[in-house]
DNA sequence: CGAGTTTGACCCGCGC
DNA sequence: GCGCGGGTCAAACTCG
């Protein structure tokens, strides 16, 4: 058999073979975290492609509609309105990270209205049933919210940690970091790679197992708190780590908190089905007990067996493949993200003179994670890296930041676009957008564009509106900011006003519905992932700080080379090439 | 010689 | 059904 896939050749045992059930969801979701405003045209272009604009438009439309419908409040549509409210609430909560109040809100609204307006028993009964229904919905939403919140928390935590790390590094002179600094933006080269790691995933709501899988795994490691590491040597950066997961920090020297990845990478869309057999099928015996090693293995490629997932998470089912793309300026062919990659292909993408390179994670056999690297057509200094899949193995500390960040982003997207219920993907997007958008900054944008929704993290520029300049985030400040954001009431107005307004809701909903319709393919919603204004900046800064500029592998040792930047300056800035984005 | 890259061919989904 | 384009494979090649 030819199963000798490159993997086999390399060193991967077949056992690790990722078996991807062909049934894997073909859909992809891509999340884009944008950050550059200043990025200028390049960034703008990119966003445009994504369709961010649409998103905003939608918002406006919603508002308008809301105004119009405003008068209708109290009308027979109460119920619907309330429903909307729920949705909105979710958004709010998400932003606020508070959950649990929506119920009351909803109830209040409903009950009061109902009482006032429904006189006949029949009507009352009806109303009640409605309420019940709403409550259920509310629950669902809550779940979603929880998920999102968790992810958000994770991100924050992570960022915080990074920041702290960085800070300590500067001030205290933390011991080594390995990441190379991005020449482009980091003047002080403070990139430090956090040698410590925090487990985030756990934050996930305890009752939301799936959540974890969705988000956390996306990038892999992220999350999960590994119990074992909690005691680490480093002072916990922040304790507010994700809710219950405590942030466990460990000296990262070499240990990696291995997340509990239950991975099931199985899914993996993979369209080239034909080939699958070689890779995964190759392993004849494959039942590799996926065991996740506890510690991080040395730099050499650990051949761990694929972590075993006792429970095949239904992830495949729920999770559409999420794609997270990161835009960063780097002359280096590839940004170092701490992982090891092997190039398995290169192609010229249509519309972009720069070739697109395909990489596969080689840190573990069978790791389904892949990434595409491509330079922007217009701005060759910008490298767009798109990640896909979840690592099924522990990640080195160096890889954690990126991994968790992307994971969180993806997970957010995913959670927002749960196909379940009546929420369609689009709806989810809207929801997310709503939740996040308010802040206007464009660090993170979510695009639900056609083929696959995408999340993009744009690190090309320092955040515009972000109040946290990357240069030197004060940990204290940061914490304060985050805490503030976390406060339930933090920006009530921002959200409350707009979102809560029942009238707007209807508008919103309409928009949401409309989206799917036209968007079937092009509708894209862009949203900032954080409701916290600081968030974007922080996140970007954090990531940026550890993204090495050189392919030489600052930390991970990715040896891949990215497509050489075609010297030709992109004459036409007609399109930006977002790897996960395709223009069809 | 092993590990990784190069590169043309192949597969597959999608739009026309 | 056909062609296009994205994504992957895998033999050949390069490098240390």
UniProtKB/TrEMBL annotation:
<feature type="compositionally biased region" description="Gly residues">
    <location>
        <begin position="550"/>
        <end position="559"/>
    </location>
</feature>
<keyword id="KW-0238">DNA-binding</keyword>
<keyword id="KW-0175">Coiled coil</keyword>
<keyword id="KW-0539">Nucleus</keyword>
<feature type="region of interest" description="Disordered">
    <location>
        <begin position="256"/>
        <end position="318"/>
    </location>
</feature>
<keyword id="KW-0805">Transcription regulation</keyword>
<feature type="compositionally biased region" description="Basic and acidic residues">
    <location>
        <begin position="573"/>
        <end position="584"/>
    </location>
</feature>
<feature type="domain" description="WRKY">
    <location>
        <begin position="330"/>
        <end position="396"/>
    </location>
</feature>
<feature type="region of interest" description="Disordered">
    <location>
        <begin position="169"/>
        <end position="189"/>
    </location>
</feature>
<feature type="region of interest" description="Disordered">
    <location>
        <begin position="201"/>
        <end position="237"/>
    </location>
</feature>
<feature type="region of interest" description="Disordered">
    <location>
        <begin position="97"/>
        <end position="117"/>
    </location>
</feature>
<dbReference type="InterPro" id="IPR036576">
    <property type="entry name" value="WRKY_dom_sf"/>
</dbReference>
<dbReference type="Pfam" id="PF03106">
    <property type="entry name" value="WRKY"/>
</dbReference>
<feature type="coiled-coil region">
    <location>
        <begin position="117"/>
        <end position="151"/>
    </location>
</feature>
<feature type="region of interest" description="Disordered">
    <location>
        <begin position="550"/>
        <end position="584"/>
    </location>
</feature>
<keyword id="KW-0804">Transcription</keyword>
<dbReference type="InterPro" id="IPR044810">
    <property type="entry name" value="WRKY_plant"/>
</dbReference>
<feature type="compositionally biased region" description="Basic and acidic residues">
    <location>
        <begin position="179"/>
        <end position="188"/>
    </location>
</feature>
<dbReference type="GO" id="GO:0043565">
    <property type="term" value="F:sequence-specific DNA binding"/>
</dbReference>
<feature type="compositionally biased region" description="Basic and acidic residues">
    <location>
        <begin position="61"/>
        <end position="70"/>
    </location>
</feature>
<dbReference type="InterPro" id="IPR003657">
    <property type="entry name" value="WRKY_dom"/>
</dbReference>
<feature type="compositionally biased region" description="Basic residues">
    <location>
        <begin position="263"/>
        <end position="272"/>
    </location>
</feature>
<dbReference type="GO" id="GO:0003700">
    <property type="term" value="F:DNA-binding transcription factor activity"/>
</dbReference>
<protein>
    <recommendedName>
        <fullName>WRKY domain-containing protein</fullName>
    </recommendedName>
</protein>
<feature type="region of interest" description="Disordered">
    <location>
        <begin position="61"/>
        <end position="80"/>
    </location>
</feature>
<feature type="region of interest" description="Disordered">
    <location>
        <begin position="1"/>
        <end position="25"/>
    </location>
</feature>
<dbReference type="GO" id="GO:0005634">
    <property type="term" value="C:nucleus"/>
</dbReference>
